[in-house]
Write a structure and sequence with these properties.
Elements: H1 6-21, H2 23-45, H3 48-81, H4 84-118, H5 125-154, E1 159-162, E2 165-168, H6 171-175, H7 180-209, H8 213-248, H9 250-256, E3 263-264, E4 268-275, E5 280-287, H10 290-296, E6 302-303, H11 318-346, H12 354-362, H13 366-382, E7 385-387, E8 391-392, H14 393-396, H15 402-433
Antiparallel strand pairs: 1-2, 3-6, 4-5, 7-8
């Protein structure tokens, strides 16, 4: 029996923590923009129903934001405890990028979050709306810097090696590295889709239960329209991202497609069971020429195979191969959900088709699953490099004993089960209660002692 190494356990630990953490920031990125939409619509129409929906989803946002912050703190610790080699070699680039995220994004969110959560009766309508916008902007800026750092690790640019340590020479090139633009847009759209599917799924649940009918119908219409707009854009951006991977990370693309030999006019592998030892695919189902057409936008395009790379430079095949197909399959299901929904909406049967509402409920976690499998595809496909082509994962790990990593992994697992168990219970309780009547707005009067009172519109709900 092979004893797991500290490096392997550290990878498992980081993957476990990240798998939990990424769900909550992704949800809050989309949810913050959803809150901006609801409050902007309320400012225009002054509808009590819109105000109720805003307060309802604000509670969900608060709980998700808190869980995201708690789970994210642990990740920063791991750079020192588990990945000292990465911090030593690449800290001059990654450190400032992550610090910019805290300074420009997290502080912005934290500053205006209190106003958004507790300022309804303390500031004017316009000021409260500005606070909601700033929170949403903070989540987007946060994604900008996190994706800049991660994309640099995928396609490093703007650096030089000095005595084995990476030094930034061009911050513009480092931040806007080749994979960053498409990966940023791809991630933000994934966050929006995840939130849209949750909003639509919760709406469908209410409609099936026969509660909050008017509010559920409004939410479902908004969610459907949003998913119908975003999912085609996501498919387009995903295709663009694939072209970048082909150019800058050909080994990753070969693993994603389980392509062993370099060929032209390659088929699309719908399904297979990759055998890495024998370097072949078993039980393969192919579509002729379609692989070249999708991967190179050419009928006879050439796709590089894994045999062109030394065995020690090849990523694992099975994990990115299957995770990529799960992500794509869920994306196609989202597209089908949107197309069918638009057809039912046109026929005025959107809220009466119980089978379709059940489909929405079933698709509620689809956005998060697609997000996780997409992340697994990107990160596992990058192996054996932690900074692609520059620093190997094994060299980035801290020189600690495997038992220490295993102990901390068990502690993280138990803690996360308890923490996220209570967090999930709270969120489910909020969702089950539903969008009840929001707190009334008391008579807000502008006074000289209140600096923000100058923007008060002096109107009641």
């Amino acid at each position: 029996m092979t004893v797991p190494t500290a490096e392997f356990l550290s990878r498992i630990q980081f993957g476990f923590v990240m798998s939990f953490h990424i769900l909550f920031p992704a949800f809050t990125i989309g949810l913050a923009s959803w809150l901006v939409f609801l409050e902007a619509l309320w400012l225009r129409k002054r509808s009590a129903m819109l105000r109720d929906l805003y307060f309802f989803w604000m509670k969900v946002f608060a709980g998700s934001f808190g869980l995201g912050v708690v789970s994210g703190i642990v990740m920063s610790f791991q750079f020192g405890t588990n990945w000292a080699g990465l911090s030593t070699v690449a800290g001059n680039v990654l450190g400032p990028l992550l610090n910019y995220e805290v300074m420009t994004a997290f502080f912005l969110e934290a500053t205006f979050l209190g106003v958004m959560l507790f300022g309804w009766n303390r500031v004017s309508h316009r000021t409260h709306f500005i606070a909601t916008c700033m929170v949403a902007l903070g989540t987007l800026i946060s994604s900008f810097w996190i994706l800049a750092a991660n994309s640099w690790m995928q396609t490093p640019q703007g650096y030089t090696m000095v005595d084995g340590v990476i030094q930034a020479t061009d911050w513009w090139a480092a931040i806007f590295n080749p994979s960053f633009p498409t990966r940023l847009v791809h991630m933000v759209l994934a966050c929006f889709l995840s939130t849209g599917l949750v909003v639509g799924g919760v709406s469908a649940w209410y409609l099936l239960r026969g509660v909050w009918q008017d509010k559920a119908q409004l939410m479902l219409r908004c969610a459907l329209a949003f998913v119908a707009i975003v999912i085609p854009l996501q498919i387009l951006v995903g295709d663009m991202s694939g072209l970048v991977v082909r150019e800058y990370q050909p080994a990753k693309l070969a693993a994603i497609e389980a392509r062993w030999t370099t060929e032209k006019s390659v088929p699309l592998t719908l399904f297979a069971w990759p055998d890495e030892k024998a370097e072949r695919n078993d039980y393969a189902v192919y579509v002729p020429h379609l692989g070249s057409l999708i991967l190179t936008h050419s009928w006879n395009g050439e796709v590089q195979g894994l045999k062109d790379f030394a065995p020690q430079d090849r990523p694992p095949v099975a994990a990115p191969f299957f995770s990529f197909r799960i992500m794509v399959g869920l994306g196609l299901l989202m597209l089908a959900l949107a197309v069918v929904g638009l057809l039912l909406w046109w026929r005025r049967r959107l809220f009466d088709s119980r089978w379709y509402l059940r489909c929405w409920m079933a698709m509620m976690p689809a956005g998060f699953i697609a997000l996780l499998t997409g992340w697994y595809t990107a990160e596992i496909g990058r192996q054996p490099w932690v900074v692609y082509g520059v620093l190997r994962t094994v060299d980035a790990a801290s020189p600690v004993h495997a038992s220490s990593v295993l102990t901390s992994l068990i502690v993280y697992f138990v803690t996360y089960m308890i923490l996220f168990g209570f967090g999930s219970w709270y969120l489910f309780k909020v969702l089950r209660t539903g969008p009840d009547t929001a707190p009334p707005r008391f008579g807000f009067e502008a006074t000289a002692s209140r600096p923000l009172a100058v923007v008060d519109d002096r109107r009641e709900d």
